[in-house]
Every structure is written in structure tokens, then in C-alpha cells.
């Protein structure tokens, strides 16, 4: 989970170099070359694993892995998918239903034995909870606006009373595991008017649908510019009652993470529009009170 709203998908034409925190992406007309920085071999391995598995079990939903390091250590070459990133533009009902269909496809792609053998994805609930507790334990780097402080205090109180099904190793009973892409940024979902495809699997692994969909609804890129119609997307996703009940707490936990990230933005070198942290504080308060 990155602390800003900037990123780029792999749709469109032309060639472009896009630097990211863990890797550098070069977009070519017919392929994408993604080179991981030193120290991120595990992320690269997760992406390779995901692309190989999806090519077998859900062909067409993700890029095709063309080459992975035989000639360029640390690099992955994959096909370039058609479509335009969903982030930052209005999405009507057909696009939201196509997005939900893509999520169902990828979440249910793996046979149960392969899914059971897969490690839990990075950044799942226990890791996120431990990160939040570390952040609460250390002093803030800079003064925070009152509305942000109040929301963080409310988040601390909620976190202290959250059940193990929200903060522990595993979700509550009745919640079915799924394959999780591990990235809620709408920029990594490409729509062509008929279907939606996915890119970026470096944080992928075993997960559950409520957690993965909460990653989408709470990602700052989904509301800081053109907001995603979250109720419509959730209706299209058709979650089970158990997943719906879990979703509310997943959203609260991830919204709290985003508030910490956005509150840490340096005013001298902002990565997000002014007032983004205050808006996130309000979003968190609404989720905590609902």
C-alpha cells in the first residue's frame, strides 16, 4: 500500500518509463518491462507466481509473462494489456459490473488445493494491525490538524476493541479464502469498454474477498479525484452475508492505515492535494460511526 494517489497502469499506446518504489516500468507498444530494484526479489517472485498461475487458471485476465530474467536480472517482460486505467474517470454501471466480474474471476481462479498451499499475502490483517500499533507507539513526525488527531484517537479506541477475526491471523469462520491480487489501486485495473483486466501482482497471495475489496474501496486513488461509486461496486460484487459483515471492519482497518500515511505527507513536498489527510479523517470517522 503506497502513501499517495500517483501510479500508472499498463494500457494505452506509446513508450513511457514509470519509476515506482520497488521497481521501474517501461511501457512499450506491445509489451511491458518491469525491473525490480535490488532487495525486492520476494515481490518479483510473487508476481511471477501469480502470472504463471493465472495464465493456466484464468487466461486473459492478466498479462502473459514473456521472459523473467534470463537476459536481464531482476526484469520481467510481459504482454501489454489493452484498456484504460479505471482510476480518475467516471465509471458507469457497465464498467462497475465488468470490474466486479474481473474480481470474481481472479479471486476464484485457483483450485482449492493450490490456494491452500499459497502463503498469506503481504499486508493482510495481522501485518496491518501490527504496523498500526507500531505507528501509534511512536511520536508523530510533525503536528497534525485537530480533525486528524481526533480521528486517530477514535481509530485507536476501535482497534483496541476489534475482535481477533479482524486483527488476528485468519478471518472469521464462514469467510472463504481467495486468491488476492494485493493492490486496491484502480489504476491497476484496465477497462476497454467490455471487460476489465488486472496488472501488478507483487503483493499477491492467499486472502479473502472482503479484504481485497476493502483495499479497493479505501485506496486514496479511488476517491481523491473522481470517486468510485462504492455502493454500486459492492452491489455488483454480490458478497455473501459473512463477507459483507467482515467488509465493514476491513474498511475501517485500511482507512486507518491510509490516515496515518496521508497525515505523514510532508507539506514542503506534498504527494497529495492539500486537505487530503483531513478528508481521510472524515472518511474514517464515518466508517467508525456506521
Automatic annotation (TrEMBL):
<dbReference type="InterPro" id="IPR011009">
    <property type="entry name" value="Kinase-like_dom_sf"/>
</dbReference>
<protein>
    <submittedName>
        <fullName>Aminoglycoside phosphotransferase family protein</fullName>
    </submittedName>
</protein>
Amino acid at each position: 500500500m503506497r502513501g499517495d494517489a500517483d501510479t500508472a497502469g499498463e494500457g494505452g499506446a506509446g513508450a513511457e518509463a514509470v519509476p515506482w518504489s520497488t521497481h521501474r516500468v517501461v511501457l512499450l507498444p506491445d509489451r511491458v518491462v518491469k525491473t525490480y530494484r535490488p532487495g525486492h526479489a520476494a515481490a518479483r517472485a510473487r508476481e511471477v507466481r501469480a502470472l504463471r498461475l493465472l495464465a493456466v487458471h484464468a487466461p486473459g485476465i492478466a498479462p502473459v509473462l514473456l521472459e523473467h530474467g534470463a537476459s536481464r536480472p531482476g526484469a520481467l517482460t510481459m504482454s501489454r494489456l489493452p484498456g484504460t486505467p479505471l482510476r480518475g474517470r467516471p465509471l458507469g454501471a457497465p464498467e462497475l459490473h465488468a470490474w466486479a466480474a474481473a474480481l470474481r474471476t481472479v479471486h476464484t481462479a485457483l483450485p482449492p488445493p493450490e490456494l491452500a498451499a499459497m502463503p498469506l499475502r503481504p499486508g493482510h490483517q495481522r501485518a496491518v494491525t501490527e504496523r498500526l500499533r507500531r505507528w501509534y507507539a511512536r511520536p508523530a513526525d510533525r503536528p497534525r490538524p485537530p480533525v486528524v488527531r481526533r480521528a486517530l484517537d477514535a481509530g485507536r479506541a476501535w482497534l483496541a476493541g476489534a475482535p481477533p477475526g479482524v486483527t488476528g491471523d485468519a478471518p472469521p469462520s464462514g469467510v472463504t479464502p481467495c486468491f488476492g491480487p494485493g493492490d486496491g489501486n484502480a489504476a491497476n485495473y484496465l477497462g476497454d469498454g467490455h471487460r476489465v483486466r488486472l496488472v501488478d501482482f507483487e503483493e499477491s497471495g492467499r486472502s479473502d474477498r472482503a479484504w481485497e475489496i476493502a483495499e479497493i474501496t479505501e485506496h486514496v486513488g479511488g476517491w481523491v479525484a473522481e470517486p468510485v461509486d462504492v455502493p454500486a461496486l459492492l452491489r455488483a460484487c454480490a458478497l455473501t452475508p459473512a463477507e459483507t459483515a467482515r467488509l465493514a471492519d476491513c474498511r475501517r482497518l485500511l482507512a486507518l492505515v491510509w490516515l496515518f500515511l496521508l497525515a505523514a505527507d510532508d507539506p514542503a513536498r506534498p504527494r497529495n492535494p492539500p486537505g487530503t489527510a483531513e478528508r481521510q479523517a472524515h472518511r474514517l470517522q464515518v466508517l467508525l460511526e456506521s
